[in-house]
Design a protein that fits this description.
By secondary structure, the chain is mainly α. It is built from 6 helices and no strands.
């Protein structure tokens, strides 16, 4: 299967999975689904292209803390409020959408890297 197609499918499925279960207050199930899709994409990329795999791992490593900081900023400035969470920390499922999105940039949206 084409990496771009697989990546698009994983991102779309992960986004719907996280939002569906996250809004129902089942953050752990939402997070498990997101982690599974991230690991699945990394594994599949490792089988196809080692250099791209290293880029993907670095994207995942950097996008998680950056996403968490951005969401904390949004919460602290009252730009967003999440139900069923503390007032200071975002739900884990929303933070795990950031690495899913970062993998999208390296595969499905790779045309943006040229411009």
């Amino acid at each position: 299967m084409n990496l771009s197609l697989l990546n698009s499918l994983c991102y779309t499925a992960g986004w719907f999975w996280c939002v569906l279960f996250g809004l129902q207050g089942q953050s752990i199930i939402a997070a498990i689904g997101a982690v599974f899709l991230i690991v699945f994409q990394l594994y599949y990329t490792k089988l196809k292209d080692t250099f791209l795999y290293i880029q993907d791992v670095l994207l995942v490593i950097f996008s998680i803390p950056l996403g968490a900081l951005l969401e904390i900023f949004f919460i602290q400035t009252n730009l967003i409020q999440y139900a069923n969470t503390t007032k200071r920390l975002p739900p884990i499922w929303i933070v795990l959408l950031y690495p899913l999105f970062s993998l999208l940039l390296n595969h499905s949206l790779k045309i943006m890297k040229k411009h």
